[in-house]
């Protein structure tokens, strides 16, 4: 358990929460360490926890039938890893695998939901931060669908290897 | 500034990616005045046409011109096909440039998408030659695929304190990062209130990036973006490059995002 001076802080999700809320939340955090190339969760499995990345990077992927896993995004320091725990069906939408060694704060979803029920203001603040993360990922996906690096209509390098 | 093209000759060429080539040009007589980072030349492929192309490396001798060109149409394809010894016509220097001097003492974020990294390279070079003139330099580059990433071998020398690349569509066993270029921002090291940002790439990338930067607290007038419009005269006379009240060949291509944002939001002019 943490919450001590070297507890989570700095950039990212936790920094976006008011201090009293992040203090309560970080009191529930466990340290987690994943070596490089570790599968943290798989698409469709039960989403009963989440992480905040402290160092290292995690690739998020989807299963493409017949072609294996396709990485759709890589997240790093300060990022929220996993939001599927927040609402039903509470199953991971994507898979996650570490690219390099990852240090993270791990949170038990039931415990966090209980904490939110006990402290509605904290719950509201946390849900707002999670919604921001979901919003960011949605915007990133939309931007990529607009073909971020090629002007509209250009065939450009879309035939790249 | 020279208004008629001067003859230059290709003295070196290097394939950067499957569709992008770097050409080094040397004057065949009189040379153009030196280019500042972010400025562009009008390069004429004989018999095909003339297009604006930024300088992608400052000349050590003030004479040679380095351009990185992506083949997208008739003229750029003709330029990419040139071999050593071939002749071209060049006018310039044109445009506002990045003006790194105005960013002195600030942390710097240099953000390039695709071929947009080319005009940013002289700026990076200029900052690196003056390590104490600026705060922390961060270079962030995004590309469609790993095969589209420019200047990869130079990234290690740019990592002061942070340089990273991200691709949109991983392929060929790519083990690097996947996502949009703004995904690199959380790892960059900068103090938003004291940062100048230089952004170049397709407009949709510029818009997404500028919005993310503003969200982090970077002042819109310190987000310098380079905009692309069709250019013909490059001297502020023909109106081809107009964006609202701006003629981008003269008032741009580099402008503050505070100035660019309301213009980019206009659907049609
Ligand atoms: C200030 C300025 C600086 C520039 N610097 C560079 C540079 O350093 N390197 C470089 O390669 N280009 C640069 N460009 C872009 C370059 O001028 C255009 O790619 C070129 O004008 C296209 O001319 P073309 O005759 O080859 O293609 P066109 O026949 O005019 O166009 C062919 C097709 O390509 C599309 N297209 C046009 N431009 C682009 C583009 N940039 N990317 C993808 N598709 C496009 C068109 O919509 C069209 O469908 C710069 C442009 C400006 C305004
Ligand atoms: S290109 Fe003619 S006015 Fe700008």
Automatic annotation (TrEMBL), chain A:
SMART domains, per the entry: cNMP
Q: Which InterPro entries match?
A: cNMP-bd_dom, cNMP-bd_dom_sf, RmlC-like_jellyroll
A Pfam family name for this chain?
cNMP_binding
Domain Cyclic nucleotide-binding positions? 13-82
SUPFAM superfamilies given for it?
Answer: cAMP-binding domain-like (SSF51206)
Q: What is this protein called?
A: Cyclic nucleotide-binding domain-containing protein
Q: Which organism is it from?
A: Streptomyces phaeolivaceus
Automatic annotation (TrEMBL), chain B:
Q: Which cofactor does it need?
A: [2Fe-2S] cluster
Spell out the molecular function terms from Gene Ontology: 2 iron, 2 sulfur cluster binding; flavin adenine dinucleotide binding; metal ion binding; oxidoreductase activity
**The entry's keywords:** 2Fe-2S, Iron, Iron-sulfur, Metal-binding
Q: Which domain of life is it from?
A: Bacteria
What does the record's cofactor remark say about binding?
Binds 1 [2Fe-2S] cluster per subunit.
Domain FAD-binding FR-type intervals: 3-100
Which residues bind [2Fe-2S] cluster per the record? 233, 238, 241, 249
A single BP term in Gene Ontology: pyrimidine nucleotide biosynthetic process
Does the keyword section mention Translocase? no
Cross-referenced PANTHER family = DIHYDROOROTATE DEHYDROGENASE B (NAD(+)), ELECTRON TRANSFER SUBUNIT
Protein name per UniProt: Oxidoreductase
Source organism? Streptomyces phaeolivaceus
């Amino acid at each position: 358990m943490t919450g001590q001076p070297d507890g989570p802080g700095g950039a990212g999700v936790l920094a976006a929460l008011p201090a009293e809320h992040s203090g309560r939340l970080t009191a529930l955090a466990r340290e987690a360490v994943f070596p490089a190339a570790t599968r943290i969760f798989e698409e469709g499995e039960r989403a009963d926890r989440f992480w905040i990345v402290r160092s290292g990077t995690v690739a998020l992927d989807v299963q493409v039938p017949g072609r294996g896993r396709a990485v759709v995004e890589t997240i790093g320091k300060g990022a929220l890893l996993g939001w599927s725990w927040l609402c039903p069906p509470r199953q991971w939408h994507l898979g996650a695998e570490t690219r390099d060694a990852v240090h993270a704060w791990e949170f038990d979803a039931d415990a966090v939901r209980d904490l939110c029920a006990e402290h509605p203001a904290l719950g509201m603040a946390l849900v707002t931060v999670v919604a921001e993360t979901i919003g960011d990922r949605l915007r990133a996906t939309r931007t990529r669908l607009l073909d971020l690096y090629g002007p509209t209509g250009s065939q450009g390098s879309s035939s790249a290897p | 500034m020279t208004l008629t093209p001067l003859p230059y000759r290709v003295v070196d060429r290097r394939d950067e990616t499957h569709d992008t080539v770097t050409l080094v040009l040397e004057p065949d007589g009189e040379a153009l005045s030196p280019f500042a980072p972010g400025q562009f030349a009008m390069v004429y492929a004989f018999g095909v046409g003339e297009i604006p192309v930024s300088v992608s490396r400052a000349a050590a001798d003030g004479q040679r011109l380095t351009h990185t060109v992506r083949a997208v149409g008739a003229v750029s394809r003709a330029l990419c096909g040139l071999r050593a010894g071939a002749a071209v016509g060049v006018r310039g220097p044109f445009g506002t440039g990045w003006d790194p001097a105005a960013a002195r003492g600030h942390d710097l974020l240099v953000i390039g998408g695709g071929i947009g990294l080319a005009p940013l390279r002289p700026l990076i070079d200029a900052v690196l030659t003056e390590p104490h003139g600026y705060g922390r330099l961060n270079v962030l580059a995004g590309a469609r695929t790993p095969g589209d990433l420019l200047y990869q071998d130079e990234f290690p020398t740019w990592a002061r304190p942070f340089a990273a690349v991200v691709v949109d569509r991983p392929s060929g066993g790519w083990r690097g990062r996947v996502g949009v270029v703004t995904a690199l921002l959380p790892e960059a090291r900068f103090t938003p209130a004291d940062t100048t940002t230089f952004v170049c790439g397709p407009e949709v990338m510029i818009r997404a990036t500028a919005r993310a930067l503003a969200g982090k607290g970077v002042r819109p007038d310190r987000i310098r973006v380079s905009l692309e419009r069709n250019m013909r005269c490059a001297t502020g006379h023909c109106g081809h490059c107009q964006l609202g009240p701006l003629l981008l060949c003269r008032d741009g291509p580099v402008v503050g995002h505070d100035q660019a944002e309301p213009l980019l939001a206009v659907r049609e002019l």
